[in-house]
Amino acid sequence: MSNRLLISFSGGETSALMTKLIHERMTTNYSEIITVFANTGQENEQTLEFVRRCDETWGWNVVWVEAAVDPRDGMGTRAKVVDFASADRTGRVFEDMIAKYGIPGPGFIHCTRELKERPITAYARSIGWEAGSYDTAIGIRIDEIDRMNSHAAKQRLIYPMIKPFPHRKIDVNDFWFRQNWRLNLKGYQGNCRWCWKKSLRKHLTIMKEDPSAFDFPQQMEDKYPLAGANPRNEPKRFFRNKLTVDDIRRLAEEGNFEPAIDDARIYQTDILHGYELDLGGSCDDSCEGTFDDAA
Q1: Rounded Cα–Cα distance for residues 163 and 179 (Å)
Q2: Relative to the CA of 145, which of 165, 231, 233, 240 has its CA 20 to 30 Å away?
Q3: What is the Cα–Cα distance from 31 to 13, expressed in whole angstroms?
Q4: Which of 169, 222, 216 is nearest to 196 (CA)?
Q5: CA dist 40 to 180, 192, 286, Å?
Q6: Could you read off the pLDDT of 66-92 as tens digits, one per residue?
Q7: By C-alpha distance, which of 110, 130, 139, 7 is closest to 60?
Q8: 3-state DSSP of 18-76
């Protein structure tokens, strides 16, 4: 059994701290370690800058990849290697995925699979790392333990922020509080500008602060309402309860909601009022794959 490790670096602060701890404390466990970041074309620019700064500061040699979606049926997603300068910021990568597979959302969970997991595993295959020949490190914390893949052992997935380096969100914040730089985003903004997995109050807060964050999903709703597998032949929606971007805009304008808390600024000594309303969601600060299809 090969002792290789692939670090799935999402671009969030938890994932960055996990990557740092692995490179500092686990190098003797593996003969080879690679760190891979998958760009979807809908990351906040601050995320891309954070990935670059982490790499420049700590020397991880991060490999940047993007999904190369083949529009033909039966043809899988491949990986395109990019860098900070050439990484897509227009949404082209995301749109290519939607054109083939349709709008993702509850019941159609394929964005993480096609834009994160498959490009990462395709890159691994391209360098001779076949499925089952390496471990994959995922940045899920101990306070998110319910997000672990139930087939983790079979898939060779490891969760260093659960074991051997258990960290909660507050612990991660405390680490970054001691640094002189960090990810320049509010906790509820997350790496993906409008990720459908966010809680409704996060969406409403973001819409209130920056309506342009929803320009891309608005365009996709208009352009690809029936794309992909669609047995019911009805327009797909990104957001829970079949909400459209217009619905979220209307609810935000009505203002009948409690704004989301910037949990990136909550530390051990703070009173955690309202913090639990968003903790444990599947998009706290980044999009972590489950790699169900990695094998």
Answers
A1: 24
A2: 240
A3: 26
A4: 216
A5: 28, 8, 12
A6: 999 999 999 999 999 999 999 999 999
A7: 7
A8: HHHHHHHHCHHHCCEEEEEEEECCCECHHHHHHHHHHHHHHCCCCEEEEEECCCCCCCC
Residue type, 167: H
216-275, pLDDT tens digit by residue? 999 999 999 999 988 888 999 999 999 999 999 999 999 999 999 998 888 766 545 444
Q: Tokens 């997603």 correspond to what residue?
A: 77
| Cα 83 to chain centroid, rounded | 18
CB 11 within 8 A of CB 55: no
CA 111 to chain centre: 10
What is the rounded distance in angstroms from the CA atom of residue 231 to the CA atom of residue 233?
A: 6
Nearest in space to 287 (alpha carbons), one of 196, 217, 203, 215: 196
Q: For residues 214 and 198, what is the distance between their CA atoms, to the nearest angstrom?
A: 13
Cis peptide bond prior to 164, omega within 30° of 0? yes
DSSP 78: E
Q: CA 279, 285, 288 angle in degrees (round to 5)?
A: 100
Cα distance between residue 190 and residue 204, in whole Å: 14
